[in-house]
Amino acid sequence: INPKKIYCGEDYKFGLNASGNAEYLKQYFDVEIIKLLKMKQKKISTADIISYIQKGELVSANELLNRPYRLTGTVVKGLGNGKKIGFPTANLDLDFDYYLPKEGVYIGYAFIDDVKYKAIISVGTHPTIQTLSKPIIEVHVLNFEGNLYGKFIDVAFIKRIRNIITFESLEHLAKQLEKDKE
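Above: the chain's sequence. Below: its structure in token form.
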């Protein structure tokens, strides 16, 4: 490869036993070393951000990111049970292998055709209806009417509000979703 420029943090390491660093790269390439960002006297690190996301601590992750954590994808058909109980969901086929937040229900925003809507976001295997082998992202977009199938949407996570729960029936699930909406 022949990069025009390489950017790396001042603590960047690579290679066997992390023996390579930015100074080493400077011998061979045009390198710009970026000063570390800190918050509350602690380095802002990708590892910390990923850890917060995976633990469902989106408020902390968002603080370090200085913006809400976002996922994007195309809306695909699901089972249609959300629509049956008055809470249609957009099931996302993610466009990238994102770090998924801990399973749970979140409040956030959905961006559809450059319009921002409030949303309830579920990351889970929906055990009440038909347990899936891996978590999916389901988004209930508040105050939206229309067909989302095939649309590309962007979802911003603000805060985790509860765990995924197995309900006795779809009616019990609908009552909880009404509380989540409030």
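The first helix runs from residue 22 to 26.
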